[in-house]
Design brief:
Shape: globular
Oligomer: single chain
Radius of gyration: 22 Å
Strand content: under 5%
Largest sheet: none
């Protein structure tokens, strides 16, 4: 049994080495499904974070009651779970299309726009489904974030202390940067008409929201930490000497 297993594993590894750019339909579906589930969850989590800041700044005395442990767990769980059936259905719908001719995906990973380009069937219905899902998971959460921050800014401007206003804006700055980067690239990628997208631009945008932004997130959020900020300042000073 062990010899057979090792032999099978060796064959699979050899195939991967010989054809590193090949991906099976199941692997493609799994990859695409996880990308969209995680992406949709991040959209909802960013909305929850905006609501958390709204309560903290606009209703600070009620914050422990409104954002208690139970509510936080419910909001986070809903953000992770609610997108799963939608994203699985979206993945199945796209991969049920017939693909003929060249099955080469000109992209970094299995994504809906490049897959629709190589489909042999009219993809109008699929494109409409993509726009609907994008509106639900990108535009609606983004509008909720905008409303939350409109109320937050209104409350901050009413503060008489300049130090208090600066501290409140500092609390929101890191989250706002992540929101602009993530939602900006996501909107361009999935709400722009397919005819207006070049393959090079599509790959560049995908590189931003799948690799660059998640890599920058820890740095952006830790910049508010005084020790991190001081360490970066000292490092910059050493390089500039």
């Amino acid at each position: 049994m062990a010899t057979s297993y090792l032999g099978t594993a060796s064959v699979k590894l050899a195939r991967i080495v010989e054809s590193p750019n090949l991906i099976s339909l199941l692997d493609c579906a799994t990859q695409m499904c996880f990308v969209y589930i995680l992406g949709g969850s991040e959209c909802l989590l960013l909305t929850v974070m905006a609501y958390d800041r709204y309560v903290a700044i606009c209703n600070p005395l009620h914050y422990p009651l409104v954002m208690n442990h139970k509510v936080c767990v419910q909001l986070v769980t809903a953000s992770w779970v609610s997108g799963v059936p939608v994203m699985v259905g979206q993945t199945c719908q796209v991969l049920s299309l017939p693909f003929c001719g060249s099955n080469t995906i000109n992209h970094f990973f299995c994504d809906i726009p490049p897959l629709l380009r190589i489909a042999c069937k009219d993809t109008f219905v699929n494109e409409i489904a993509v726009y609907v899902v994008a509106v639900v998971f990108i535009m609606v959460p983004f509008l909720l974030i905008v409303v939350s921050y409109a109320k937050i800014i209104s409350s901050i401007l009413k503060l008489t202390s300049a130090r208090g206003r600066a501290k409140a804006f500092s609390t929101c700055s890191s989250h706002l940067i992540v929101v602009v980067l993530f939602y900006g690239t996501g909107t361009i990628a999935y709400l722009q008409p397919k005819s207006n997208q070049s393959e090079g631009t599509s790959k560049l945008i995908s590189l931003f929201y799948t690799i660059l932004i998640p890599t920058l997130n820890p740095i952006i959020y830790t910049l508010r930490n005084k020790d991190i900020a001081m360490a970066l300042k000292n490092l910059a000073t050493k390089f500039l000497r």
